[in-house]
Amino acid sequence: MTHRIFVQPQIEMKSSRINYIHGQNLHVTQGVMSANAPMQREKHLNTTNVTVASTSHGDMSSTSNFSHDTGISGFSYGSPTQSKEYMNTSDSGFTLLRHPSLISSSMYSSASKASSTNLSSGSGSLMGMRRSGSRSVFSDAEMTHAQAQTLTLTKYFGHDVNRFTEGDPGEPDFDATLRNFIEPHMSKARKAREQQRHVVLGKIGIEKETIDSISVASNAFVPYPALRHERPFLFDAESYPLHEILAETLGVSDLSRLHEHSIKDKNLLLSPLLDAKKRKAFHQCYDTFVQSFCIPLIHYIAITQKMVNDFSRDQTNQKIRYRYQAFPCLRVIRPNEFSNGPHCDMSHGHSMGNINFHIPLTPTFGTNCMYTESHPGKEDWHPLKTKSVGLGYIFDAARCLHFGLENMTESTRVSLDFRIAIYRDRSGGIPRSVSNAHTMMQQHTGTVLSNRYYRIEEEECDVHDRHDRLCNPKMLQDNYSTFPGYYEEAYIDVGIQSFGGVVPGPVVHKKNRGLMHPDTRVGFPFEGVQN
Q1: CA pair distance 232, 88, nearest whole angstrom
Q2: Can you give the pTM of this predicted structure?
Q3: Are 166 and 160 in contact, with CB atoms under 8 Å apart?
Q4: Which phi and psi (to 5°) does residue 10 adopt?
């Protein structure tokens, strides 16, 4: 089913201006915009109206009066060359900690590259219609031609954006016109996120009225919000040569040129990963990377945010457990291919407690990047781009909408995505607040607590879990944890005493020594593989 967008303004001609009356769909003035273009654009476009007509998919049918315009400037590279100059485009405004792997976050300003706007369906195109950060006006002839065209939406988000931009390989300018065009896709993603948010918070005992009163942007009842800020980080690509081992496993010299391989069937091309012996080197390198780099990195941030010290001092078992994806999701987006449309991982059945790692193994730029918002509901769409291997990102994919576009560059994007969640080990003790209550009742009664007191203790544990800064055990459960194989576990004992006044660094202990076999839950290329 296609969804047609009808642009039906009423026009009143006045010299060199085109003024839309009644419907106020779009106000356009000829000429080049001045320095205060963002203000003019907001004034001209804040009432842009697009009507979507459809006979099915009620959640995709809507009338949009969307006026969000972030004015993010684009940045493109002349060629996907290797470089140690790492780029970051996050504008979340957080202050990074002084961990050696964390790099400062700032928006690199650059001239916006003009990109084409295609306002046509399969037949007919708007040749000569251009859109850029410095020009958002059309000529009389262009607008007259536009009125005769019909926009259509498909179920493929990346393809729709590509048609809108006429195949421009650079970063799209998510201005008001493009935002209105993709609004049906975004509306569906928001609805799915909101529905799953109610399910997850209801699972931990939050009443519906309370959930309704909490904005999606709120961190209420959300585990470790300080860890969810979008963070770029550096890692040593020589110590963790994930890209080299994967390329060797697949029998290629350069992952970014994967599309030039003689084997065009992607499943056949990546079939060596289905063989446990052939993928072992890559799997071991990934597992080492998570245990020796990613978990210590998160633990360091959690320590500085005082998230892991809520134990009574007399507890001998003070373990913080890290549940991580046993095998990463592998994304291979060749030129003219596209990946998932707007979504958050929570709406796909993943735990809200997950923190996502995005590790590009090739240069990422323009339309081959992953795009995301920096905070749930902010919708400040920006790419997670890199110029060479060694830069990764942490971000809140569980709640933040993110998507891929149709790759119109001449470079294949290969990247890894995996998730880590943090929770307390309750097996050897309970948090200080409950432990103290337990001790006080024992001192008062002089006897072992009855079942009644144990029930009270369990209720207090539930209350503590609900307000714990780490992940609630009930929230930890998701569609991928119903049976073993998808998640692996490790722990760090934060109760280890110092020796000679020297506090040892975090030592990560893995629960299982071996490597788990990936199955269909990991996705491509393991679809149909049973564990």
Answers
A1: 7
A2: 0.69
A3: no
A4: -100, 135
